[in-house]
Amino acid sequence: MLQTLRNAWKIPDLRKKMLYTILMLVIFRLGSFIPVPGIDAEMIKQLMGGFDQGIQGLINNFSGGALERASIFAMSITPYINASIILQLLTVAIPALEKLAKEGEEGRKKIASYTRYVTVILAFIQATGLFFSLRSAMTGDSGVFAYFVVTFTFTAGTAFLMWLGEEITEKGVGNGISLLIVIGIVSRGPQMLQSMKAMVEQSGGVTIQSAATIIAIVVIAVLAIGAVVLMNEAERRIPVQYAKRVVGRKSYGGQSTHIPLKVIMAGVMPIIFAVSIMSFPRTISMFIHGTNAPTEGVWGAILRWFSETHPFYIICYFLLILFFTYFYTAIQFNPIEVSNNMKRNGGFIPGIRPGKPTSDYIAKVLSKVTLLGAIFLAAIAIFPLLLAFIPSMSGISIGGTSLLIVVGVSLETVKQLESQMLMRHYKGFLE
Protein backbone atom coordinates (compact mmCIF):
# COMPACT_ATOMS: atom_id res chain seq x y z
CA MET A 1 0.00 0.00 0.00
CA LEU A 2 2.77 2.45 0.94
CA GLN A 3 4.69 1.55 -2.22
CA THR A 4 1.57 2.29 -4.28
CA LEU A 5 1.20 5.70 -2.63
CA ARG A 6 4.87 6.51 -3.25
CA ASN A 7 4.62 5.53 -6.91
CA ALA A 8 1.40 7.52 -7.34
CA TRP A 9 3.04 10.60 -5.76
CA LYS A 10 5.71 10.57 -8.49
CA ILE A 11 3.10 11.08 -11.22
CA PRO A 12 2.23 14.84 -11.47
CA ASP A 13 -1.42 14.30 -12.39
CA LEU A 14 -2.04 11.86 -9.53
CA ARG A 15 -0.06 14.06 -7.13
CA LYS A 16 -2.45 16.96 -7.87
CA LYS A 17 -5.44 14.70 -7.23
CA MET A 18 -3.97 13.46 -3.95
CA LEU A 19 -3.21 17.01 -2.78
CA TYR A 20 -6.73 18.11 -3.71
CA THR A 21 -8.18 15.19 -1.74
CA ILE A 22 -6.04 16.04 1.29
CA LEU A 23 -7.16 19.71 1.11
CA MET A 24 -10.85 18.70 1.05
CA LEU A 25 -10.34 16.35 4.01
CA VAL A 26 -8.60 19.13 5.97
CA ILE A 27 -11.60 21.41 5.32
CA PHE A 28 -13.85 18.64 6.66
CA ARG A 29 -11.82 18.34 9.86
CA LEU A 30 -11.73 22.12 10.37
CA GLY A 31 -15.50 22.32 9.97
CA SER A 32 -15.93 19.60 12.59
CA PHE A 33 -14.75 22.11 15.22
CA ILE A 34 -16.92 25.08 14.16
CA PRO A 35 -19.77 25.23 16.74
CA VAL A 36 -23.41 25.89 15.98
CA PRO A 37 -24.57 29.26 17.41
CA GLY A 38 -26.49 29.12 20.67
CA ILE A 39 -25.39 25.67 21.91
CA ASP A 40 -23.07 25.08 24.88
CA ALA A 41 -20.33 22.66 23.80
CA GLU A 42 -19.46 21.69 27.40
CA MET A 43 -23.08 20.81 28.11
CA ILE A 44 -23.14 18.69 24.95
CA LYS A 45 -20.18 16.66 26.20
CA GLN A 46 -22.10 15.89 29.38
CA LEU A 47 -25.25 15.01 27.45
CA MET A 48 -23.33 12.73 25.08
CA GLY A 49 -22.85 10.34 27.98
CA GLY A 50 -26.59 9.71 27.73
CA PHE A 51 -26.74 8.87 24.02
CA ASP A 52 -23.29 7.68 23.02
CA GLN A 53 -24.56 4.27 21.96
CA GLY A 54 -26.59 2.92 19.08
CA ILE A 55 -27.24 5.05 16.03
CA GLN A 56 -26.22 8.26 17.85
CA GLY A 57 -22.86 6.71 18.70
CA LEU A 58 -22.47 5.58 15.09
CA ILE A 59 -23.17 9.11 13.79
CA ASN A 60 -20.76 10.59 16.32
CA ASN A 61 -18.12 8.08 15.20
CA PHE A 62 -18.63 8.83 11.50
CA SER A 63 -18.46 12.58 12.14
CA GLY A 64 -15.20 12.36 14.07
CA GLY A 65 -16.79 13.53 17.32
CA ALA A 66 -18.58 16.48 15.66
CA LEU A 67 -21.92 15.38 17.15
CA GLU A 68 -20.74 15.64 20.75
CA ARG A 69 -19.29 19.06 19.94
CA ALA A 70 -22.54 20.11 18.17
CA SER A 71 -20.55 21.50 15.27
CA ILE A 72 -21.91 22.39 11.84
CA PHE A 73 -20.99 18.86 10.62
CA ALA A 74 -22.66 17.14 13.59
CA MET A 75 -24.85 14.92 11.42
CA SER A 76 -21.92 14.01 9.17
CA ILE A 77 -22.88 12.37 5.89
CA THR A 78 -25.36 9.88 7.37
CA PRO A 79 -28.45 11.51 5.73
CA TYR A 80 -26.78 10.98 2.35
CA ILE A 81 -26.10 7.33 3.19
CA ASN A 82 -29.73 6.86 4.24
CA ALA A 83 -30.95 8.58 1.08
CA SER A 84 -28.74 6.36 -1.08
CA ILE A 85 -30.10 3.25 0.65
CA ILE A 86 -33.70 4.42 0.20
CA LEU A 87 -33.19 5.14 -3.51
CA GLN A 88 -31.46 1.79 -3.96
CA LEU A 89 -34.38 -0.03 -2.36
CA LEU A 90 -36.93 1.97 -4.35
CA THR A 91 -35.06 1.15 -7.56
CA VAL A 92 -35.97 -2.49 -7.00
CA ALA A 93 -39.57 -1.75 -5.95
CA ILE A 94 -40.52 0.98 -8.49
CA PRO A 95 -40.32 -0.02 -12.20
CA ALA A 96 -39.78 3.59 -13.34
CA LEU A 97 -36.64 3.93 -11.20
CA GLU A 98 -35.46 0.48 -12.27
CA LYS A 99 -35.80 1.52 -15.91
CA LEU A 100 -33.96 4.75 -15.14
CA ALA A 101 -31.09 2.84 -13.53
CA LYS A 102 -30.65 0.80 -16.73
CA GLU A 103 -30.37 3.87 -18.97
CA GLY A 104 -26.65 4.22 -18.38
CA GLU A 105 -24.88 7.44 -17.40
CA GLU A 106 -27.89 9.73 -17.90
CA GLY A 107 -30.08 7.52 -15.73
CA ARG A 108 -27.47 7.43 -12.98
CA LYS A 109 -27.21 11.23 -13.06
CA LYS A 110 -30.98 11.55 -12.55
CA ILE A 111 -30.95 9.08 -9.66
CA ALA A 112 -28.00 10.98 -8.13
CA SER A 113 -30.05 14.18 -8.40
CA TYR A 114 -32.99 12.53 -6.64
CA THR A 115 -30.59 11.30 -3.95
CA ARG A 116 -29.46 14.88 -3.25
CA TYR A 117 -33.04 16.09 -2.81
CA VAL A 118 -33.86 13.19 -0.47
CA THR A 119 -30.65 13.89 1.46
CA VAL A 120 -31.66 17.49 2.19
CA ILE A 121 -35.15 16.39 3.31
CA LEU A 122 -33.77 13.67 5.60
CA ALA A 123 -31.11 16.06 6.94
CA PHE A 124 -33.77 18.61 7.89
CA ILE A 125 -35.88 15.94 9.64
CA GLN A 126 -32.83 14.62 11.49
CA ALA A 127 -31.75 18.17 12.40
CA THR A 128 -35.22 18.80 13.87
CA GLY A 129 -34.93 15.74 16.09
CA LEU A 130 -31.41 16.77 17.08
CA PHE A 131 -32.61 20.26 18.01
CA PHE A 132 -35.28 18.97 20.40
CA SER A 133 -32.86 16.49 21.97
CA LEU A 134 -30.29 19.27 22.56
CA ARG A 135 -32.67 21.97 23.84
CA SER A 136 -31.32 21.59 27.38
CA ALA A 137 -27.89 22.67 26.06
CA MET A 138 -29.16 25.90 24.49
CA THR A 139 -27.43 28.95 25.98
CA GLY A 140 -30.21 31.40 25.09
CA ASP A 141 -33.68 31.33 23.65
CA SER A 142 -34.83 27.90 22.41
CA GLY A 143 -37.87 29.16 20.53
CA VAL A 144 -38.78 29.35 16.85
CA PHE A 145 -35.82 31.55 15.84
CA ALA A 146 -33.32 29.22 17.52
CA TYR A 147 -35.05 26.24 15.87
CA PHE A 148 -34.54 27.64 12.37
CA VAL A 149 -30.95 28.70 13.07
CA VAL A 150 -29.91 25.30 14.45
CA THR A 151 -31.80 23.09 11.98
CA PHE A 152 -30.75 25.12 8.92
CA THR A 153 -27.12 25.10 10.10
CA PHE A 154 -27.11 21.33 10.60
CA THR A 155 -28.84 20.78 7.24
CA ALA A 156 -26.45 23.14 5.42
CA GLY A 157 -23.49 21.32 7.00
CA THR A 158 -24.68 17.98 5.65
CA ALA A 159 -25.38 19.49 2.20
CA PHE A 160 -21.86 20.96 2.15
CA LEU A 161 -20.34 17.59 3.07
CA MET A 162 -22.36 15.95 0.29
CA TRP A 163 -20.88 18.47 -2.19
CA LEU A 164 -17.42 17.96 -0.68
CA GLY A 165 -17.64 14.20 -1.14
CA GLU A 166 -18.78 14.51 -4.75
CA GLU A 167 -15.92 16.93 -5.49
CA ILE A 168 -13.39 14.45 -4.08
CA THR A 169 -14.89 11.66 -6.20
CA GLU A 170 -14.77 13.79 -9.35
CA LYS A 171 -11.47 15.65 -8.95
CA GLY A 172 -9.61 13.68 -6.29
CA VAL A 173 -8.75 10.07 -5.49
CA GLY A 174 -11.21 7.44 -4.26
CA ASN A 175 -14.85 7.68 -3.25
CA GLY A 176 -15.33 11.03 -1.52
CA ILE A 177 -18.23 10.04 0.74
CA SER A 178 -16.37 6.93 1.95
CA LEU A 179 -13.18 8.90 2.59
CA LEU A 180 -15.06 11.46 4.70
CA ILE A 181 -16.41 8.63 6.87
CA VAL A 182 -12.95 7.05 7.17
CA ILE A 183 -11.31 10.33 8.23
CA GLY A 184 -14.03 10.80 10.85
CA ILE A 185 -13.42 7.30 12.22
CA VAL A 186 -9.62 7.57 12.18
CA SER A 187 -9.76 10.92 13.98
CA ARG A 188 -11.27 9.09 16.98
CA GLY A 189 -8.02 7.13 17.39
CA PRO A 190 -6.47 9.56 19.92
CA GLN A 191 -9.56 9.18 22.12
CA MET A 192 -8.96 5.43 22.28
CA LEU A 193 -5.32 6.02 23.21
CA GLN A 194 -6.51 8.42 25.90
CA SER A 195 -8.82 5.71 27.25
CA MET A 196 -5.91 3.28 27.39
CA LYS A 197 -3.83 5.89 29.23
CA ALA A 198 -6.66 6.48 31.73
CA MET A 199 -6.92 2.72 32.27
CA VAL A 200 -3.19 2.54 33.09
CA GLU A 201 -3.46 5.48 35.50
CA GLN A 202 -6.44 3.94 37.30
CA SER A 203 -4.51 0.72 37.83
CA GLY A 204 -1.72 2.65 39.60
CA GLY A 205 0.74 2.99 36.74
CA VAL A 206 2.19 0.37 34.42
CA THR A 207 1.54 -2.99 36.06
CA ILE A 208 1.65 -6.54 34.77
CA GLN A 209 -2.14 -6.55 34.44
CA SER A 210 -2.36 -3.25 32.53
CA ALA A 211 0.56 -4.23 30.27
CA ALA A 212 -1.10 -7.59 29.53
CA THR A 213 -4.37 -5.81 28.73
CA ILE A 214 -2.67 -3.41 26.30
CA ILE A 215 -0.83 -6.27 24.60
CA ALA A 216 -4.11 -8.21 24.32
CA ILE A 217 -5.81 -5.17 22.75
CA VAL A 218 -3.01 -4.76 20.20
CA VAL A 219 -3.06 -8.48 19.33
CA ILE A 220 -6.87 -8.48 19.00
CA ALA A 221 -6.74 -5.38 16.78
CA VAL A 222 -4.08 -6.91 14.48
CA LEU A 223 -5.98 -10.20 14.20
CA ALA A 224 -9.25 -8.36 13.55
CA ILE A 225 -7.66 -6.26 10.78
CA GLY A 226 -6.18 -9.40 9.21
CA ALA A 227 -9.56 -11.18 9.35
CA VAL A 228 -11.35 -8.17 7.82
CA VAL A 229 -8.81 -7.91 4.98
CA LEU A 230 -9.07 -11.66 4.31
CA MET A 231 -12.88 -11.73 4.30
CA ASN A 232 -13.17 -8.46 2.37
CA GLU A 233 -11.05 -9.87 -0.47
CA ALA A 234 -12.48 -13.41 -0.33
CA GLU A 235 -14.72 -14.52 -3.18
CA ARG A 236 -16.21 -17.69 -4.62
CA ARG A 237 -15.55 -18.01 -8.35
CA ILE A 238 -18.08 -19.93 -10.45
CA PRO A 239 -16.44 -21.09 -13.73
CA VAL A 240 -18.19 -20.04 -16.96
CA GLN A 241 -17.47 -21.35 -20.45
CA TYR A 242 -18.57 -19.50 -23.60
CA ALA A 243 -19.33 -21.53 -26.72
CA LYS A 244 -17.44 -20.72 -29.89
CA ARG A 245 -19.51 -18.97 -32.57
CA VAL A 246 -18.59 -18.44 -36.22
CA VAL A 247 -19.87 -15.20 -37.80
CA GLY A 248 -18.76 -14.89 -41.41
CA ARG A 249 -15.04 -15.59 -41.47
CA LYS A 250 -14.48 -14.73 -37.79
CA SER A 251 -15.00 -16.89 -34.72
CA TYR A 252 -16.11 -15.47 -31.38
CA GLY A 253 -16.22 -16.88 -27.86
CA GLY A 254 -14.65 -20.10 -26.73
CA GLN A 255 -12.94 -18.49 -23.74
CA SER A 256 -13.29 -19.40 -20.09
CA THR A 257 -14.11 -16.89 -17.36
CA HIS A 258 -15.80 -16.87 -13.96
CA ILE A 259 -18.53 -15.18 -11.90
CA PRO A 260 -16.99 -13.67 -8.74
CA LEU A 261 -19.24 -13.90 -5.68
CA LYS A 262 -17.78 -11.82 -2.84
CA VAL A 263 -18.19 -13.24 0.65
CA ILE A 264 -19.09 -9.82 2.09
CA MET A 265 -21.12 -8.53 -0.86
CA ALA A 266 -23.39 -6.43 1.37
CA GLY A 267 -20.53 -4.55 3.06
CA VAL A 268 -21.43 -2.81 6.33
CA MET A 269 -25.02 -2.01 5.32
CA PRO A 270 -26.54 -4.94 7.30
CA ILE A 271 -24.85 -3.65 10.47
CA ILE A 272 -26.14 -0.11 9.88
CA PHE A 273 -29.68 -1.41 9.29
CA ALA A 274 -29.53 -3.57 12.44
CA VAL A 275 -28.14 -0.73 14.59
CA SER A 276 -30.90 1.60 13.36
CA ILE A 277 -33.65 -0.85 14.32
CA MET A 278 -32.16 -1.85 17.69
CA SER A 279 -31.58 1.82 18.65
CA PHE A 280 -35.11 2.85 17.72
CA PRO A 281 -36.55 2.66 21.31
CA ARG A 282 -33.55 4.57 22.72
CA THR A 283 -33.84 7.19 19.96
CA ILE A 284 -37.57 7.70 20.62
CA SER A 285 -36.86 7.99 24.35
CA MET A 286 -34.16 10.59 23.69
CA PHE A 287 -36.54 12.73 21.61
CA ILE A 288 -39.34 12.48 24.22
CA HIS A 289 -37.47 12.48 27.53
CA GLY A 290 -34.09 13.88 26.49
CA THR A 291 -31.24 12.38 28.50
CA ASN A 292 -33.51 11.69 31.52
CA ALA A 293 -34.58 8.24 30.32
CA PRO A 294 -37.17 6.52 32.56
CA THR A 295 -35.96 3.57 34.62
CA GLU A 296 -39.30 2.31 35.90
CA GLY A 297 -42.47 1.05 34.26
CA VAL A 298 -42.97 -0.49 30.84
CA TRP A 299 -40.82 2.08 29.04
CA GLY A 300 -37.97 1.56 31.49
CA ALA A 301 -38.16 -2.23 30.97
CA ILE A 302 -38.06 -1.76 27.18
CA LEU A 303 -34.97 0.44 27.45
CA ARG A 304 -33.26 -2.14 29.66
CA TRP A 305 -34.00 -4.92 27.16
CA PHE A 306 -32.65 -2.78 24.33
CA SER A 307 -29.50 -1.83 26.23
CA GLU A 308 -26.27 -2.96 24.54
CA THR A 309 -25.29 -4.92 27.66
CA HIS A 310 -28.50 -6.98 27.74
CA PRO A 311 -28.42 -10.53 26.23
CA PHE A 312 -31.71 -9.85 24.39
CA TYR A 313 -30.09 -6.94 22.52
CA ILE A 314 -27.03 -9.01 21.55
CA ILE A 315 -29.10 -11.97 20.28
CA CYS A 316 -31.52 -9.80 18.28
CA TYR A 317 -28.63 -7.74 16.92
CA PHE A 318 -26.91 -10.93 15.72
CA LEU A 319 -30.07 -12.29 14.05
CA LEU A 320 -30.93 -8.96 12.40
CA ILE A 321 -27.47 -8.76 10.81
CA LEU A 322 -27.95 -12.27 9.39
CA PHE A 323 -31.33 -11.28 7.97
CA PHE A 324 -30.24 -7.97 6.45
CA THR A 325 -27.12 -9.55 4.92
CA TYR A 326 -29.32 -11.92 2.93
CA PHE A 327 -31.80 -9.12 2.18
CA TYR A 328 -29.21 -6.64 0.90
CA THR A 329 -27.35 -9.31 -1.08
CA ALA A 330 -30.62 -10.31 -2.79
CA ILE A 331 -31.13 -6.68 -3.83
CA GLN A 332 -27.62 -6.34 -5.24
CA PHE A 333 -27.29 -9.68 -7.03
CA ASN A 334 -30.02 -11.36 -9.09
CA PRO A 335 -29.15 -14.98 -10.12
CA ILE A 336 -31.99 -15.10 -12.68
CA GLU A 337 -30.72 -11.99 -14.47
CA VAL A 338 -27.15 -13.32 -14.47
CA SER A 339 -28.35 -16.66 -15.86
CA ASN A 340 -30.34 -14.96 -18.64
CA ASN A 341 -27.37 -12.79 -19.62
CA MET A 342 -25.14 -15.85 -19.82
CA LYS A 343 -27.69 -17.70 -21.96
CA ARG A 344 -28.02 -14.78 -24.40
CA ASN A 345 -24.24 -14.62 -24.85
CA GLY A 346 -23.79 -18.37 -25.24
CA GLY A 347 -22.27 -18.92 -21.81
CA PHE A 348 -22.81 -21.88 -19.51
CA ILE A 349 -21.50 -23.35 -16.29
CA PRO A 350 -19.77 -26.71 -16.96
CA GLY A 351 -22.07 -29.56 -15.90
CA ILE A 352 -25.13 -27.28 -15.43
CA ARG A 353 -27.85 -26.83 -18.05
CA PRO A 354 -28.64 -23.23 -19.12
CA GLY A 355 -31.77 -21.50 -17.89
CA LYS A 356 -33.45 -22.29 -14.57
CA PRO A 357 -30.90 -24.98 -13.48
CA THR A 358 -28.13 -22.36 -13.86
CA SER A 359 -30.00 -19.72 -11.84
CA ASP A 360 -30.83 -22.31 -9.14
CA TYR A 361 -27.17 -23.36 -8.96
CA ILE A 362 -25.94 -19.76 -8.68
CA ALA A 363 -28.58 -19.03 -6.00
CA LYS A 364 -27.50 -22.11 -4.03
CA VAL A 365 -23.82 -21.15 -4.13
CA LEU A 366 -24.68 -17.52 -3.31
CA SER A 367 -26.71 -18.64 -0.28
CA LYS A 368 -23.77 -20.61 1.14
CA VAL A 369 -21.30 -17.77 0.51
CA THR A 370 -23.69 -15.21 2.02
CA LEU A 371 -24.14 -17.34 5.14
CA LEU A 372 -20.39 -17.29 5.77
CA GLY A 373 -20.24 -13.52 5.22
CA ALA A 374 -23.32 -12.93 7.40
CA ILE A 375 -21.86 -14.90 10.32
CA PHE A 376 -18.58 -13.00 10.01
CA LEU A 377 -20.35 -9.62 9.94
CA ALA A 378 -22.50 -10.53 12.93
CA ALA A 379 -19.51 -11.86 14.87
CA ILE A 380 -17.36 -8.78 14.28
CA ALA A 381 -20.31 -6.50 15.14
CA ILE A 382 -21.12 -8.12 18.51
CA PHE A 383 -17.46 -8.64 19.41
CA PRO A 384 -17.09 -5.16 21.03
CA LEU A 385 -20.31 -5.80 23.01
CA LEU A 386 -18.91 -9.07 24.36
CA LEU A 387 -15.57 -7.39 25.03
CA ALA A 388 -17.33 -4.87 27.29
CA PHE A 389 -18.16 -7.71 29.73
CA ILE A 390 -14.44 -8.02 30.51
CA PRO A 391 -13.78 -5.51 33.33
CA SER A 392 -10.26 -4.64 32.20
CA MET A 393 -11.47 -3.80 28.67
CA SER A 394 -14.82 -2.17 29.43
CA GLY A 395 -13.51 1.31 28.62
CA ILE A 396 -11.86 0.31 25.35
CA SER A 397 -13.87 0.42 22.14
CA ILE A 398 -12.78 -1.66 19.15
CA GLY A 399 -15.60 -1.06 16.70
CA GLY A 400 -16.10 -3.84 14.16
CA THR A 401 -18.18 -1.58 11.90
CA SER A 402 -15.50 1.11 11.88
CA LEU A 403 -12.83 -1.49 11.16
CA LEU A 404 -14.77 -2.85 8.20
CA ILE A 405 -15.25 0.62 6.74
CA VAL A 406 -11.65 1.76 7.19
CA VAL A 407 -10.13 -1.43 5.76
CA GLY A 408 -12.62 -1.68 2.87
CA VAL A 409 -12.25 1.96 1.80
CA SER A 410 -8.44 1.83 2.11
CA LEU A 411 -8.21 -1.25 -0.10
CA GLU A 412 -10.62 0.24 -2.65
CA THR A 413 -8.69 3.55 -2.78
CA VAL A 414 -5.39 1.75 -3.32
CA LYS A 415 -6.96 -0.32 -6.12
CA GLN A 416 -8.14 2.88 -7.81
CA LEU A 417 -4.64 4.36 -7.59
CA GLU A 418 -3.16 1.18 -9.07
CA SER A 419 -5.65 1.18 -11.95
CA GLN A 420 -4.93 4.84 -12.74
CA MET A 421 -1.18 4.21 -12.66
CA LEU A 422 -1.63 1.18 -14.93
CA MET A 423 -3.65 3.29 -17.38
CA ARG A 424 -0.90 5.93 -17.50
CA HIS A 425 1.77 3.25 -17.82
CA TYR A 426 0.18 1.83 -20.98
CA LYS A 427 -0.65 5.22 -22.46
CA GLY A 428 2.66 5.34 -24.34
CA PHE A 429 2.00 2.00 -25.98
CA LEU A 430 -1.49 3.06 -27.05
CA GLU A 431 -0.12 6.16 -28.71
Could you provide a short overview of the structure?
By secondary structure, the chain is mainly alpha-helical. The protein is 69% helix and 5% strand.
What characteristics describe this protein?
5 strands; two-stranded antiparallel ribbon; mainly alpha; single chain; three-stranded antiparallel sheet; 19 helices; 431 residues; globular
Strand order of the largest sheet: 4-1-5
Number of helices: 19
What is the 3D shape?
A: globular
Low-confidence parts: 427-431
Helical residues, percent = 55-70%
| Strands, total number | 5
Task: Measure the end-to-end span.
Answer: 29 Å
Series of secondary-structure elements, N-terminal to C-terminal: HHHHHHHHHHHEEEEHHHHHEHHH
Radius of gyration of CA atoms, rounded to a whole number: 24 Å
Q: What is the typical, i.e. mean, pLDDT?
A: 79
Estimated share of beta-strand residues: 5-15%
Largest sheet: 3 strands, antiparallel
Structural class assignment: mainly alpha
How does this model look, in words?
The chain has 19 helices and five strands. A hairpin with a 2-residue loop joins strand 2 (245-247) and strand 3 (250-252). The strands form two sheets. It has a three-stranded antiparallel beta sheet. Residues 427-431 have low confidence and may be disordered. The protein is globular. By secondary structure, it is mostly helical.
